[in-house]
Amino acid sequence: MRLAPGFVSEPCGVEAFSVRFAPDGAFLAASGSHGQVSIYNVSTGQEAYRLNRNEKHPVKQVCWRPEREDAPLRTRGVLVGASTDGKLRQWHVTSGRLLQEFGDPNGEVGQLLCVDYSPDGTRMAAGGLQELWVFDEETKQLAV
Question: How far apart are CA 83 and CA 109, in angstroms?
Answer without folding.
Answer: 11
